[in-house]
């Protein structure tokens, strides 16, 4: 790949990754998870020249880290999700009217994000369940 091709690749990955820019910033959240009240913080940052968006979610006894990106090889949006127990998952991501949804395999929960001007809403719905297991509302700090 020559320098011009590389520059075009970087420009395209940044442009396509812009769909994840609503995560960038610092957020505090409240909601419920697994039937219990839940509070936490979320911090999003553009890294590696803006071609990745890193999102770190923290609460008491819990931390998740996600890396969102555009995959130029196949034109897809992707999330790499790291969590406790040395667990790493990779999922396609689809845009929705007002956010995005992780495309998870059968048996795994669907994660949906909705973006507002100064808030993010996250719902985690397990297959076969009528209500989300996790509902969080994040507000910009």
Structural summary, described in words:
The chain has one domain: Calycin beta-barrel core domain (Lipocalin, Beta Barrel). A hairpin with a 2-residue loop joins strand 3 and strand 4. It has 1 helix and 10 strands; from the N terminus they run H-E-E-E-E-E-E-E-E-E-E. A 10-stranded antiparallel barrel has the order 1-2-3-4-5-6-7-8-9-10. It is 11% helix and 57% strand. The protein has one helix spanning 3-17, and strands spanning 25-33, 36-47, 52-59, 62-71, 76-83, 87-96, 99-102, 110-115, 119-125, 134-140. The chain is globular. It has 141 residues and is mainly beta.
In short:
The chain contains one helix and ten strands, in the order αββββββββββ.
CATH architecture: Beta Barrel
Low-pLDDT segments, ≥5 res: none
Separation of termini?
A: 42 Å
Reading off the top of the CATH hierarchy, the class is best stated as: Mainly Beta
Largest β sheet strand count, sense and barrel closure:
10 strands, antiparallel, barrel
Topology pattern, helix = H, strand = E: HEEEEEEEEEE
Please report the total strand number as a whole number.
Answer: 10
Looking at CATH, the homologous superfamily is Calycin beta-barrel core domain
Q: Tell me the structural class.
A: mainly beta
Number of domains: 1
User: What percentage of amino acids are in beta strands?
Assistant: over 45%
